[in-house]
């Protein structure tokens, strides 16, 4: 469903430019949720941005034959001087909402449960409120693949449960590619795993094997 | 790259996607432009009005003898000033457009060129509306500000809009990649006001100097705009709309090329 072939990516800066991703070949099958693992700076978010189409690869190609969300996470996607409602309206419109815009707004308002803050500017939000809103917004659209970049990490217990439930309801209809450092949620939601290390990606059919490989690297370095 | 919502299975065409982005962005920009500031609407009209009053006061104190051939001073200045603001605001709005909408590039449908186009369009609409208000107000006050050749006035007004768009496109890319460009552009705006002949007629300047000043395309646009308003107006020697349009098409092409070339870098920043 998503094919990545010979993907290279680097960012240019003043001190030279190393490859963040080097010759990544992956194929995400339909309906399989995948967890991305790796240390900070291993290129997880970069890979997610590339899959989302926010950024273009240096070399290689990505083929998306399905509807892919934007990377749902803390930092991206909201204009901080606009209110939550205005942001939701904007996103609904660019996705061609038409007459559905009001329905989408109602859905997000109900899902996010942030009360009156919905009509306050985003810059007054806490990170938890922001992720509630971003998460609710992405669920208002029927994507085939949802990309999550630590979207659930700052939510409180109730919200985590709600988000997990929302994704479980979508099993069979949609899948998930998620970056997370909480292994519980990865084991809960994902079947397969990808482990990123020094720009290389390794596919594991079982998420537990990917987690084991990740543990091996981190403990190996401590010793 | 297909994007659909809620069961609608047909993919949208690139044009449909772009149109919905422009629509969404126009609504967003229109609200933040007119509602965000306190008294936003008021200042939009009051700023040029105050400007006219100050200039008229200064002119009546220092010299009343420099007559403009074929036009009264106040309408002459209002027309020039409105035309100049059209270009300048097109450029200034473009300058901040990319940075102000950076967060929205998270959605792959939104390209860096979209906010620039939308802002220039919105600014043109607002400026046109304000200009009409000024013409109406001027007529009520008994000024001779009705355009004698309305077709020409409207065509040149549209041309100035295009020049503002072209400059906006160029500075939006350069200003985001090289922040110093933004500072220089802001600094240039005041001398440009004088060099474009908004306040003082350029006819009185020596010919040697004028030769260089006429490289500034805004002069050509403003003089022709005034010709559209005042039938007997004598434009500055060498005014040419051909030069103006060559310059305008040049900057629009350059601006679009810059956007194509640097789109990824603008998004990634």
From TrEMBL, chain A:
Q: Which UniProt keywords apply?
A: ATP-binding, Nucleotide-binding, Transport
Q: Has the keyword ATP-binding been applied to this entry?
A: yes
GO terms (molecular function) for this protein are: ABC-type transporter activity; ATP binding; ATP hydrolysis activity
Family recorded in the similarity comment = Belongs to the ABC transporter superfamily.
InterPro entries from the UniProt entry: AAA+_ATPase, ABC_transporter-like_ATP-bd, ABC_transporter-like_CS, ABC_transpr_TagH-like, Bact_Polysacc_Export_ATP-bd, P-loop_NTPase
The organism is: Halomonas nitroreducens
The keyword Transport is annotated on this UniProt entry: yes
* Name recorded for this polypeptide: ABC transporter ATP-binding protein
Domain annotation ABC transporter: ranges: 2-223
One cellular component term (GO) for this entry is:
membrane
Pfam families according to UniProt: ABC_tran
Automatic annotation (TrEMBL), chain B:
Query: Pfam families per the record?
Result: ABC2_membrane (PF01061)
- What does the UniProt keyword field contain? Capsule biogenesis/degradation, Cell membrane, Membrane, Polysaccharide transport, Sugar transport, Transmembrane, Transmembrane helix, Transport
PROSITE patterns per record? ABC_TM2
Q: What's the protein's topology in the membrane?
A: Multi-pass membrane protein
Q: Name one GO biological process term.
A: polysaccharide transport
Recorded GO cellular component terms are: ATP-binding cassette (ABC) transporter complex
Determine the domain of life of the protein's source.
Bacteria
Q: Does the keyword ATP-binding apply?
A: no
- In which compartments does the protein localize? Cell inner membrane; Cell membrane
- Give me the segments passing through the membrane: 41-62, 68-87, 125-143, 155-177, 184-202, 243-263
ABC transmembrane type-2 domain segment(s): 39-262
- GO MF annotations in UniProt: ABC-type transporter activity
Concerning InterPro entries, the annotation shows:
ABC2_TM, ABC2_TM_bact-type, ABC_2_transport
Family listed:
Belongs to the ABC-2 integral membrane protein family.
Q: Which PANTHER family match?
A: CAPSULE POLYSACCHARIDE EXPORT INNER-MEMBRANE PROTEIN CTRC, INNER MEMBRANE TRANSPORT PERMEASE
What is the name of this protein?
A: Transport permease protein
Instruction: Give the lineage.
Output: Bacteria, Pseudomonadati, Pseudomonadota, Gammaproteobacteria, Oceanospirillales
């Amino acid at each position: 469903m998503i094919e990545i072939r010979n993907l290279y990516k680097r960012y240019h800066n003043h001190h030279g430019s190393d490859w963040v991703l080097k010759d990544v070949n992956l194929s995400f099958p339909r309906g399989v949720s995948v967890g991305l693992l790796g240390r900070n700076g291993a290129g997880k978010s970069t890979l997610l941005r590339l899959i989302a189409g926010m950024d273009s690869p240096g070399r290689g190609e990505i083929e998306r034959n399905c509807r892919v969300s934007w990377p749902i996470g803390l930092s991206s996607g909201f204009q901080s001087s606009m209110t939550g409602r205005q942001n939701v309206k904007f996103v609904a419109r660019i996705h061609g909402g038409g007459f559905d815009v009001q329905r989408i707004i109602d859905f997000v308002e109900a899902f996010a449960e942030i009360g009156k803050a919905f009509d306050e500017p985003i810059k007054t939000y806490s990170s938890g409120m922001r992720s509630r809103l971003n998460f609710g917004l992405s669920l208002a659209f029927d994507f085939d693949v949802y990309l999550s970049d630590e979207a659930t990490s700052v939510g409180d217990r109730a919200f985590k449960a709600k988000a997990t439930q929302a994704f479980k309801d979508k099993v069979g209809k949609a899948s998930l590619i998620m970056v997370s450092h909480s292994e519980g949620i990865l084991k809960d939601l994902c079947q397969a795993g990808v482990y990123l290390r020094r720009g290389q990606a390794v596919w594991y059919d079982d998420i537990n094997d990917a987690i084991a490989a990740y543990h091996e690297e981190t403990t190996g370095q401590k010793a | 790259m297909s994007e659909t919502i809620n069961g609608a299975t047909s993919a949208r065409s690139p044009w449909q996607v772009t149109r919905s982005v422009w629509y969404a962005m126009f609504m967003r920009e229109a609200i933040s432009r007119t509602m965000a500031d306190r008294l936003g609407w008021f200042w939009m009209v009051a700023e040029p009005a105050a400007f006219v009053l100050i200039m008229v006061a200064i002119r009546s104190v220092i010299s009343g003898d420099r007559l403009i051939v074929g036009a009264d001073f106040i309408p002459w200045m209002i027309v020039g000033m409105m035309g100049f603001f059209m270009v300048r605001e097109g450029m200034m709005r473009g300058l901040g457009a990319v940075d102000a909408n950076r967060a929205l590039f998270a959605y792959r449908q939104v390209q860096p060129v979209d906010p620039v186009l939308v802002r220039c369009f919105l600014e043109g609409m607002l400026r046109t509306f304000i200009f009409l208000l000024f013409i109406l107000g001027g007529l009520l006050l008994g000024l001779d500000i009705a355009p004698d050749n309305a077709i020409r006035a409207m065509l040149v007004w549209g041309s100035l809009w295009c020049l503002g768009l072209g400059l906006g496109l160029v500075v939006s890319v350069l200003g985001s990649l090289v922040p110093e460009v933004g500072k220089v552009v802001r600094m240039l705006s005041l001398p440009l006001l004088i060099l474009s002949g908004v306040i003082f007629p350029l006819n009185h300047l020596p010919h040697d100097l004028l030769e260089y000043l006429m490289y500034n395309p805004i002069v050509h646009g403003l003089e022709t705009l005034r010709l559209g308003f005042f039938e007997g107006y004598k434009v500055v020697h060498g005014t040419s709309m051909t030069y103006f349009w060559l310059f305008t098409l040049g900057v629009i092409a350059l601006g679009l090329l810059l956007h194509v070339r640097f789109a990824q870098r603008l998004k990634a920043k």
